[in-house]
Amino acid sequence: MCTVNMAGRKWLEELKSWQRGKMPCMLMACFTVTMALFANPVVGDSVQTVADSNWTVILQGQWMLVFYAPWCPACQQIKADWEEFGKRSEALGISVGKVDVTQQPGLSGRFLVTTLPTIFHANDGSFRRYLSSRAVEDFQSYVVDKKWEAVEPVPEWKSPSSFVMTMMSGLFRLSVWIRQIHSYLTETLGIPVWGSYLIFALVTLVTGLLLGLILVLIADCICPSRPRRRDRKSEVEVKEDGSEGDIEDTLTEERQLSDAENESAKLSGEEESTGEEVLPSEGEAGAADMQMPEGASESMVRKRKPQGAEPNET
Protein backbone atom coordinates (compact mmCIF):
# COMPACT_ATOMS: atom_id res chain seq x y z
CA MET A 1 0.00 0.00 0.00
CA CYS A 2 2.83 2.37 0.77
CA THR A 3 4.43 1.68 -2.59
CA VAL A 4 1.18 2.51 -4.42
CA ASN A 5 0.75 5.75 -2.52
CA MET A 6 4.29 6.85 -3.29
CA ALA A 7 3.80 6.14 -7.04
CA GLY A 8 0.56 8.11 -7.09
CA ARG A 9 2.09 11.07 -5.36
CA LYS A 10 4.98 11.09 -7.81
CA TRP A 11 2.62 11.05 -10.80
CA LEU A 12 0.60 13.96 -9.41
CA GLU A 13 3.72 16.00 -8.86
CA GLU A 14 4.86 15.42 -12.47
CA LEU A 15 1.44 16.42 -13.78
CA LYS A 16 1.47 19.63 -11.77
CA SER A 17 4.92 20.54 -13.03
CA TRP A 18 3.89 19.90 -16.64
CA GLN A 19 0.82 22.08 -16.25
CA ARG A 20 2.89 24.88 -14.77
CA GLY A 21 5.25 24.86 -17.74
CA LYS A 22 2.87 24.13 -20.64
CA MET A 23 -0.28 26.07 -19.78
CA PRO A 24 1.23 29.56 -20.17
CA CYS A 25 2.67 28.54 -23.54
CA MET A 26 -0.71 27.29 -24.73
CA LEU A 27 -2.47 30.45 -23.59
CA MET A 28 0.13 32.58 -25.33
CA ALA A 29 -0.32 30.61 -28.55
CA CYS A 30 -4.12 31.05 -28.50
CA PHE A 31 -3.80 34.76 -27.85
CA THR A 32 -1.33 35.15 -30.74
CA VAL A 33 -3.63 33.34 -33.19
CA THR A 34 -6.60 35.46 -32.12
CA MET A 35 -4.70 38.69 -32.60
CA ALA A 36 -3.51 37.54 -36.00
CA LEU A 37 -7.06 36.84 -37.11
CA PHE A 38 -8.26 40.29 -36.02
CA ALA A 39 -5.23 42.00 -37.56
CA ASN A 40 -5.67 40.23 -40.93
CA PRO A 41 -9.42 39.75 -41.51
CA VAL A 42 -10.71 37.26 -44.05
CA VAL A 43 -11.17 38.71 -47.51
CA GLY A 44 -14.70 37.36 -47.73
CA ASP A 45 -15.77 39.64 -44.86
CA SER A 46 -14.63 42.80 -46.70
CA VAL A 47 -16.52 41.94 -49.89
CA GLN A 48 -20.16 41.34 -48.99
CA THR A 49 -22.23 38.73 -50.80
CA VAL A 50 -25.50 40.18 -52.07
CA ALA A 51 -28.47 37.89 -52.74
CA ASP A 52 -32.20 38.10 -53.46
CA SER A 53 -32.92 38.05 -49.75
CA ASN A 54 -30.80 41.08 -48.81
CA TRP A 55 -30.35 43.09 -52.00
CA THR A 56 -32.32 46.04 -50.60
CA VAL A 57 -29.32 47.00 -48.43
CA ILE A 58 -27.68 48.54 -51.50
CA LEU A 59 -30.50 51.12 -51.72
CA GLN A 60 -28.93 52.97 -48.80
CA GLY A 61 -25.45 54.46 -48.78
CA GLN A 62 -22.75 54.17 -51.43
CA TRP A 63 -22.00 50.80 -52.98
CA MET A 64 -19.87 49.18 -55.66
CA LEU A 65 -21.39 45.92 -56.87
CA VAL A 66 -19.92 43.38 -59.30
CA PHE A 67 -21.82 40.61 -61.10
CA TYR A 68 -19.67 37.59 -61.90
CA ALA A 69 -19.74 33.87 -62.63
CA PRO A 70 -17.22 31.23 -61.52
CA TRP A 71 -16.73 30.00 -65.08
CA CYS A 72 -16.05 33.49 -66.51
CA PRO A 73 -12.31 34.08 -67.33
CA ALA A 74 -12.65 37.89 -67.24
CA CYS A 75 -14.26 37.65 -63.79
CA GLN A 76 -11.31 35.62 -62.54
CA GLN A 77 -8.90 38.29 -63.81
CA ILE A 78 -10.45 41.09 -61.73
CA LYS A 79 -11.02 38.93 -58.66
CA ALA A 80 -7.78 39.95 -56.93
CA ASP A 81 -8.30 43.67 -57.66
CA TRP A 82 -11.86 43.52 -56.41
CA GLU A 83 -10.81 41.83 -53.17
CA GLU A 84 -8.11 44.45 -52.63
CA PHE A 85 -10.70 47.16 -53.30
CA GLY A 86 -12.91 45.51 -50.69
CA LYS A 87 -10.10 45.79 -48.12
CA ARG A 88 -9.92 49.52 -48.75
CA SER A 89 -13.68 50.03 -48.67
CA GLU A 90 -13.84 50.90 -44.98
CA ALA A 91 -11.24 53.67 -45.36
CA LEU A 92 -13.08 54.99 -48.44
CA GLY A 93 -16.45 55.01 -46.70
CA ILE A 94 -18.04 52.71 -49.25
CA SER A 95 -19.48 49.20 -49.26
CA VAL A 96 -18.27 46.62 -51.78
CA GLY A 97 -20.40 43.67 -52.82
CA LYS A 98 -20.53 40.80 -55.29
CA VAL A 99 -23.30 38.75 -56.90
CA ASP A 100 -22.90 35.25 -58.34
CA VAL A 101 -25.31 35.16 -61.29
CA THR A 102 -25.36 31.35 -61.26
CA GLN A 103 -26.76 31.40 -57.73
CA GLN A 104 -28.84 34.59 -57.99
CA PRO A 105 -30.60 34.66 -61.40
CA GLY A 106 -33.29 36.96 -60.02
CA LEU A 107 -30.77 39.72 -59.28
CA SER A 108 -29.17 39.38 -62.70
CA GLY A 109 -32.61 39.92 -64.22
CA ARG A 110 -33.39 42.80 -61.88
CA PHE A 111 -30.22 44.62 -62.98
CA LEU A 112 -30.61 43.36 -66.58
CA VAL A 113 -27.10 41.92 -66.68
CA THR A 114 -26.17 40.66 -70.17
CA THR A 115 -22.35 40.69 -70.00
CA LEU A 116 -19.85 39.56 -67.37
CA PRO A 117 -18.34 41.03 -65.36
CA THR A 118 -20.76 43.93 -64.87
CA ILE A 119 -20.08 46.59 -62.22
CA PHE A 120 -22.63 49.05 -60.82
CA HIS A 121 -22.20 52.07 -58.58
CA ALA A 122 -25.11 52.84 -56.26
CA ASN A 123 -25.64 56.01 -54.24
CA ASP A 124 -28.81 56.12 -52.14
CA GLY A 125 -30.82 54.13 -54.68
CA SER A 126 -29.42 55.88 -57.79
CA PHE A 127 -27.58 53.36 -59.98
CA ARG A 128 -24.85 53.98 -62.55
CA ARG A 129 -22.96 51.45 -64.62
CA TYR A 130 -19.18 51.45 -64.24
CA LEU A 131 -17.45 51.35 -67.64
CA SER A 132 -13.90 52.45 -66.78
CA SER A 133 -10.76 50.39 -66.28
CA ARG A 134 -10.95 47.43 -63.90
CA ALA A 135 -7.91 48.06 -61.72
CA VAL A 136 -8.04 48.72 -57.99
CA GLU A 137 -6.60 52.22 -58.42
CA ASP A 138 -9.31 53.06 -60.96
CA PHE A 139 -12.00 51.77 -58.60
CA GLN A 140 -10.60 53.95 -55.82
CA SER A 141 -10.32 57.11 -57.93
CA TYR A 142 -13.85 56.57 -59.26
CA VAL A 143 -15.13 56.86 -55.69
CA VAL A 144 -12.68 59.38 -54.20
CA ASP A 145 -12.76 61.82 -57.14
CA LYS A 146 -16.53 61.33 -57.55
CA LYS A 147 -16.26 60.48 -61.21
CA TRP A 148 -19.62 58.78 -60.94
CA GLU A 149 -21.31 62.20 -60.87
CA ALA A 150 -20.43 62.69 -64.55
CA VAL A 151 -22.13 59.41 -65.52
CA GLU A 152 -25.81 59.39 -66.47
CA PRO A 153 -27.83 57.32 -63.97
CA VAL A 154 -29.98 54.42 -65.00
CA PRO A 155 -33.52 55.52 -66.12
CA GLU A 156 -36.28 55.27 -63.58
CA TRP A 157 -38.09 52.43 -65.37
CA LYS A 158 -34.83 50.41 -65.51
CA SER A 159 -34.05 50.97 -61.85
CA PRO A 160 -33.77 47.66 -59.92
CA SER A 161 -36.54 48.77 -57.56
CA SER A 162 -39.04 49.57 -60.35
CA PHE A 163 -42.06 47.42 -61.20
CA VAL A 164 -40.70 46.51 -64.65
CA MET A 165 -37.42 45.20 -63.28
CA THR A 166 -39.26 43.32 -60.55
CA MET A 167 -41.24 41.49 -63.24
CA MET A 168 -38.03 40.89 -65.16
CA SER A 169 -36.50 39.34 -62.04
CA GLY A 170 -39.44 36.97 -61.78
CA LEU A 171 -39.04 35.96 -65.44
CA PHE A 172 -35.35 35.19 -64.94
CA ARG A 173 -36.12 33.03 -61.90
CA LEU A 174 -38.88 31.28 -63.83
CA SER A 175 -36.54 30.52 -66.75
CA VAL A 176 -33.96 28.99 -64.42
CA TRP A 177 -36.65 26.94 -62.71
CA ILE A 178 -37.95 25.65 -66.05
CA ARG A 179 -34.40 24.74 -67.12
CA GLN A 180 -33.88 22.80 -63.91
CA ILE A 181 -37.14 20.90 -64.44
CA HIS A 182 -36.15 20.15 -68.04
CA SER A 183 -32.80 18.78 -66.88
CA TYR A 184 -34.52 16.66 -64.25
CA LEU A 185 -36.99 15.21 -66.79
CA THR A 186 -34.40 14.45 -69.45
CA GLU A 187 -31.41 13.40 -67.35
CA THR A 188 -32.87 11.89 -64.17
CA LEU A 189 -36.13 10.40 -65.47
CA GLY A 190 -34.82 9.65 -68.97
CA ILE A 191 -37.71 11.32 -70.81
CA PRO A 192 -36.90 12.32 -74.43
CA VAL A 193 -36.40 15.97 -75.20
CA TRP A 194 -39.55 16.13 -77.34
CA GLY A 195 -41.49 14.55 -74.47
CA SER A 196 -40.27 17.25 -72.11
CA TYR A 197 -41.32 19.96 -74.57
CA LEU A 198 -44.74 18.31 -74.92
CA ILE A 199 -45.22 18.30 -71.16
CA PHE A 200 -44.35 22.00 -70.98
CA ALA A 201 -46.80 22.78 -73.82
CA LEU A 202 -49.65 20.93 -72.09
CA VAL A 203 -48.91 22.61 -68.77
CA THR A 204 -48.87 26.01 -70.49
CA LEU A 205 -52.22 25.30 -72.20
CA VAL A 206 -53.92 24.13 -69.02
CA THR A 207 -52.52 27.07 -67.06
CA GLY A 208 -53.84 29.52 -69.66
CA LEU A 209 -57.32 27.98 -69.56
CA LEU A 210 -57.41 28.12 -65.76
CA LEU A 211 -56.25 31.73 -65.71
CA GLY A 212 -58.87 32.68 -68.31
CA LEU A 213 -61.60 31.00 -66.27
CA ILE A 214 -60.45 32.79 -63.13
CA LEU A 215 -60.47 36.15 -64.93
CA VAL A 216 -64.00 35.55 -66.21
CA LEU A 217 -65.22 34.70 -62.71
CA ILE A 218 -63.54 37.79 -61.29
CA ALA A 219 -65.14 39.96 -63.99
CA ASP A 220 -68.58 38.51 -63.20
CA CYS A 221 -68.09 39.20 -59.51
CA ILE A 222 -66.95 42.78 -60.10
CA CYS A 223 -69.46 43.68 -62.83
CA PRO A 224 -72.45 41.30 -62.55
CA SER A 225 -75.12 41.33 -65.26
CA ARG A 226 -78.29 43.20 -64.22
CA PRO A 227 -81.58 41.21 -64.37
CA ARG A 228 -84.39 42.62 -66.52
CA ARG A 229 -87.28 44.04 -64.52
CA ARG A 230 -90.91 43.12 -65.28
CA ASP A 231 -92.00 46.76 -65.18
CA ARG A 232 -89.70 47.70 -67.99
CA LYS A 233 -90.81 44.67 -69.93
CA SER A 234 -94.50 45.61 -69.53
CA GLU A 235 -93.77 49.17 -70.63
CA VAL A 236 -92.04 47.89 -73.71
CA GLU A 237 -94.98 45.63 -74.48
CA VAL A 238 -97.45 48.54 -74.07
CA LYS A 239 -95.37 50.66 -76.40
CA GLU A 240 -95.30 47.87 -78.94
CA ASP A 241 -99.10 47.47 -78.71
CA GLY A 242 -99.60 51.23 -79.16
CA SER A 243 -97.36 51.30 -82.18
CA GLU A 244 -99.30 48.42 -83.76
CA GLY A 245 -102.59 50.31 -83.20
CA ASP A 246 -101.18 53.42 -84.85
CA ILE A 247 -100.08 51.37 -87.82
CA GLU A 248 -103.60 49.90 -88.16
CA ASP A 249 -105.21 53.37 -87.99
CA THR A 250 -102.88 54.64 -90.67
CA LEU A 251 -103.66 51.68 -92.91
CA THR A 252 -107.41 52.27 -92.39
CA GLU A 253 -107.12 55.93 -93.35
CA GLU A 254 -105.14 55.05 -96.45
CA ARG A 255 -107.77 52.53 -97.46
CA GLN A 256 -110.58 55.10 -97.00
CA LEU A 257 -108.69 57.63 -99.09
CA SER A 258 -108.11 55.10 -101.85
CA ASP A 259 -111.80 54.11 -101.83
CA ALA A 260 -112.86 57.79 -102.10
CA GLU A 261 -110.48 58.30 -105.02
CA ASN A 262 -111.88 55.24 -106.77
CA GLU A 263 -115.47 56.47 -106.30
CA SER A 264 -114.64 59.94 -107.64
CA ALA A 265 -112.93 58.34 -110.63
CA LYS A 266 -116.04 56.24 -111.33
CA LEU A 267 -118.34 59.27 -111.09
CA SER A 268 -116.24 61.29 -113.50
CA GLY A 269 -116.27 58.40 -115.98
CA GLU A 270 -120.03 58.15 -115.89
CA GLU A 271 -120.41 61.90 -116.44
CA GLU A 272 -118.16 61.81 -119.46
CA SER A 273 -120.09 58.89 -120.95
CA THR A 274 -123.52 60.62 -120.59
CA GLY A 275 -122.19 63.97 -121.87
CA GLU A 276 -123.44 65.80 -118.86
CA GLU A 277 -121.35 68.37 -117.29
CA VAL A 278 -121.46 69.33 -113.68
CA LEU A 279 -122.10 73.03 -113.41
CA PRO A 280 -120.04 74.89 -110.89
CA SER A 281 -121.62 76.69 -108.02
CA GLU A 282 -122.16 80.42 -108.03
CA GLY A 283 -119.14 81.13 -105.87
CA GLU A 284 -116.90 78.94 -108.02
CA ALA A 285 -118.23 80.48 -111.19
CA GLY A 286 -117.63 83.99 -109.90
CA ALA A 287 -114.12 83.13 -108.92
CA ALA A 288 -113.46 81.57 -112.32
CA ASP A 289 -114.79 84.64 -114.11
CA MET A 290 -112.59 86.88 -112.05
CA GLN A 291 -109.47 84.83 -112.84
CA MET A 292 -110.16 84.24 -116.56
CA PRO A 293 -109.92 86.98 -119.19
CA GLU A 294 -112.96 88.24 -121.06
CA GLY A 295 -112.26 86.35 -124.26
CA ALA A 296 -111.87 83.11 -122.42
CA SER A 297 -115.22 83.54 -120.64
CA GLU A 298 -117.09 84.21 -123.90
CA SER A 299 -115.60 81.13 -125.51
CA MET A 300 -116.67 79.06 -122.54
CA VAL A 301 -120.28 80.37 -122.90
CA ARG A 302 -120.25 79.53 -126.58
CA LYS A 303 -119.08 76.03 -125.79
CA ARG A 304 -121.79 75.48 -123.26
CA LYS A 305 -124.69 76.48 -125.55
CA PRO A 306 -124.54 73.57 -128.02
CA GLN A 307 -124.59 71.06 -125.18
CA GLY A 308 -128.30 71.70 -124.45
CA ALA A 309 -131.04 70.35 -126.83
CA GLU A 310 -132.79 73.14 -128.79
CA PRO A 311 -136.63 72.94 -129.11
CA ASN A 312 -138.03 72.19 -132.57
CA GLU A 313 -139.82 75.04 -134.24
CA THR A 314 -143.43 74.38 -135.10
For the structure shown, list the relevant keywords.
Glutaredoxin; disulfide bond; five-stranded mixed beta sheet; phosphoprotein; 63% helix; 12 helices; electron transport; disordered C terminus; 314 residues; alpha/beta; single chain
Q: Percentage of helical residues?
A: 55-70%
Radius of gyration: 55 Å
The helix-strand sequence is HHEEHHHEHEEHHHHHH
Supply the CATH architecture of the domain at 45-161.
3-Layer(aba) Sandwich
GO cellular component, one term: endoplasmic reticulum membrane
Main location: endoplasmic reticulum
Keywords: Disulfide bond, Electron transport, Endoplasmic reticulum, Membrane, Phosphoprotein, Redox-active center, Signal, Transmembrane, Transmembrane helix, Transport
Protein name: Thioredoxin-related transmembrane protein 4
Task: Tell me what the structure shows.
This protein is an alpha/beta fold and 314 residues long. It is built from twelve helices and five strands. The protein has a five-stranded mixed beta sheet with strand order 1-3-2-4-5. Strand 4 and strand 5 form a beta hairpin. Helix 4 (79-87) crosses helix 7. One of its GO terms (molecular function) is disulfide oxidoreductase activity. Pfam families: Thioredoxin.
In short:
The protein is α/β, with parallel strands linked by helices and 314 residues long. Helices cover 63% and strands 8% of the residues.
Strand-helix topology:
Layout: H1 2-39, H2 43-46, E1 48-49, E2 62-68, H3 73-77, H4 79-87, H5 89-92, E3 95-100, H6 105-110, E4 118-123, E5 126-130, H7 136-144, H8 163-188, H9 193-222, H10 230-274, H11 282-291, H12 294-304
Parallel strand pairs: 1-3, 2-3
Antiparallel strand pairs: 2-4, 4-5
